[in-house]
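Forum: Protein Structure Q&A
Topic: Joint prediction for protein chains with partners

I've read a bunch of threads here and the consensus seems to be that you should model interacting components together rather than docking separate models afterwards. I'd like to see that in practice. Below is the full input, 701 residues plus whatever partners are listed. Could one of the regulars post the assembled result?
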Amino acid sequence: MPDVLSAPLVVEFPFTRSLGPVQSAFLTGLRERTVLGVRTADGRVLVPPVEYDPVTAEELRELTEVAATGTVTTWAWNPAPRRDQPLATPFAWVLVKLDGAGTALLHVLDAPGPGAVHTGMRVRIRWSPERTGAITDIACFEPYEGEVGQPSPHNGEFADPVTGVVTPARLDYTYTPGRAQSAYLKALSEQRTVGERCPSCRKVYVPPRGACPTCGVATAEQVEVGPRGTVTTYCIVNIKAKNLDIEVPYVYAHIALDGADLALHGRIGGIPYDQVRMGLRVEPVWTGEGRHPDHYRPTGEPDADYDVYKELL
Amino acid sequence: MPKEPVAVVGIGQTKHVAARRDVSIAGLVREAAVRALQDAALTWADIDAVVIGKAPDFFEGLMMPELYLADALGAVGKPMLRVHTAGSVGGSTALVAANLVSARVHRTVLTLAFEKQSESNAMWGLSLPIPFQQPLLAGAGGFFAPHVRAYMRRTGAPDTVGSLVAYKDRRNALKNPYAHIHDPDITLEKVQAAPMLWDPIRYSETCPSSDGACAMILTDRAGADRAPHPPAWVHGGAMRSEPTLFAGKDFVSPQAGKDCAADVYRQAGIADPRREIDAVEMYVPFSWYEPMWLENLGFADEGEGWKLTESGVTELDGDLPVNPSGGVLSTNPIGASGMIRFAEAALQVRGQAGEHQVPDARKALGHAYGGGAQFFSMWLVGAEPPTG
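Posted by a regular:
Agreed with the consensus. Here's the joint model:
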């Protein structure tokens, strides 16, 4: 097996969520140490509240307060908490039916071990000292043998309601580009560009993917292409893209390397941006920074004839 | 057994805007769905199945909309499906729903597509930092601009054609109360004076980023008989796909688009689309895609599409109006954009397009594409039930 590259890939983004009237009241309530449910037409109280009745699909808007005490309806022990979970020490995932609620809320229970947890046990909310209007305003649940909490009526209206939250999402992958791309990347480190030829249609793919997307067969025959090529089409970029440290304007081009059957993309330099044209002959410029050519510059050859590259735009 | 004819009896849209901070995603889709039910004079109980679509997950970080939105869409106890084909998803979602009716799996289906672009960043979603790969060097429009230049080179179209499309679509949008961009002071000079972001694409020739939802109720012949308003009838529908990149791919006029259109015309008995189709809602995210798709969809010969645009044929009062709603250039909740094209085509043949109604529109085409010209979906709707 040839060397196959591998690298971590972390995908994360702080998505925002507009809450709408029901979630806004629920999360604002948590900030004020008040747990709200929503009452359905047949009198059930759903906690956490939802905007639409899961049974009838009717819109639900009648908010009602429930107690901060409740009963565990089921649970699972988590011996090894992971990043961003509510507690850093081992805990129980629990479904808690708060007193006054008809449904159970998912949260965590702080307990010394699984032997200390059982279905039917009484618990209460441990509020977070810093509350912002988020489900984490409930730090966790804790065992509680005291009296049943008494909810008082609440209309769900608060001063300065929370209307939106940020929900960071993060996925950790290990990325492996596979055999064909790894070979391509290895050649790039030697400042060579190597594609693969399809055994069926004979097209040369750069970068190679290890299979021909048209014929659906594996490719293996390596073919060195370039280093020179032809600008087949391009645009002039006049706005700075995020995370790109390139002065505008610059030319972003499709470049068909000699011997390749489809174009790859790159930046054109060494020529004023407004003199770049389709058919311009170019060659890669390697600066040693990064794996790919820094840009492509004119070779000084006469422009390629349109008919030669018109299938490679 | 012949297929069941499919009728569009309900259509609902939200007013598309840059940010709907007053509603959750559930609240947003609910609004469109309730309007579609009202249009059809139906209730949740009348719906047999729900088919929804949205843009790729990273666009707004909503990974399982079919799970989260079941309550809001009255789907409990009913089949609920999610369709997933990048920018074309609104179109393919409607077609999956239509196929369920035409195959007599269900009698009445709610189909809906949405996007809340304000809750994410689509450009981020499109450019994840994959290890070892060269980053895209050009931003959103930079992917499309080289294809536009290729079209201009191939056809010799004058530089002004793109601005004519943008000027037309933005004026059409003024007649559509649901459109996002309403610029009553629009002039051709203003369009042409806008900065070139990705030369040859100007800022004024790009689509906006919108929050919005679109819903339709599709039903069978018996359902259409009970509908309070004239239905639109589905005469043909098709999807095609091809790889995003392959040797010989024609980004200017992709083969999958040609094949998809040919299939729809065959089903609908259309021999000459230019003469037989009265209005077109096509997916034009950047102005130049209008002349490109006019050729790809068979409304003009290769190299001639821009002449239809330049001569005013595609204007609202021309003889082949394109994007009377204002199109994607005026409204772009990505996941919903394809379904809005399909719904606007249906509104035209129902005679319910209001101020942007094409007079006597009897047959209209709805078109969507996405994923780097990877997916195509189209339907042709008519004012009369299909024959045969």
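The longest strand of chain B covers residues 232-241.
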